[in-house]
Amino acid sequence: MLELKDVCVRYGAIQALHSVSMHVAQGEIVCLIGANGAGKSTVLNAISGVVAPLGGSIAFENANIRGARASSIVRKGLIQVPEGRLVFPDMTVRENLEMGAYSRRDATEGTLAMVMALFPRLSERTTQLAGLMSGGEQQMLAIGRALMAAPRLLLLDEPSMGLAPLVIADIFRTLQRLRSEFGLSILLVEQNARAALMLADRGYVLTNGRITQEGTSKALLADTATQEAFLGRMAAAVAA
Length: 240
What we know:
The protein has helices spanning 40-47, 70-75, 93-100, 109-118, 120-123, 135-147, 165-182, 193-199, 217-222, 224-239; strands at residues 2-11, 14-24, 29-33, 55-60, 63-64, 78-81, 153-157, 185-190, 202-207, 210-216. α3 runs parallel beside α6 (135-147). It is of the alpha/beta class and 240 residues long. α7 (165-182) links the parallel β7 (153-157) and β8. The strands form 2 sheets. The chain has a 6-stranded mixed sheet with strand order 6-7-8-3-9-10, with helices on both faces. Strands 2-1-4-5 form a 4-stranded antiparallel sheet, covered by helices on one side.
């Protein structure tokens, strides 16, 4: 469904990605884990057309999208939920959701009903300004807004950032439902490595702009290097 081959990205004199290759199959949840500054968000931004790769190829459903406009990529069904949620704070919940459907020409009431069913809190707050919502509610809104665009592949950038464990668990359960009930494919960027690997089918580890490990989630969870680099550190942070 999505395939990256030898993707390189440079910001001025700094090369952020070095020959990154990875893929997401139809119906898969794939996670990309790594430390802060590893280049995880850059991978998503290169896929969605926010930044222009220096080299390599990006194909979505067998069509080359490297260098395509972000708006064109959205219309193909590849939708990104950005880090930090970036809801429109002075617009209501419903208005935010309707903005997510700006690229669609078909009726969206059915999609809106689906989003409200997935996130009941949003249905209770349709007239509330998004800027007055909690962080967890804003993350639900950001995901719901992306779903309004009828994605075929959802790119999620750090959806657990700054959220309480119970809220994170609720959001990750919803992501699992999106795959199991609607067949949605997901590429998940997460610093919360354990939660991401528990959700995903497969994973990649990004280190200083390079893919250094890949495998099934079960294999990565059992891998000593992954445990020492990410899982143990996260467990220690939770315990503290």
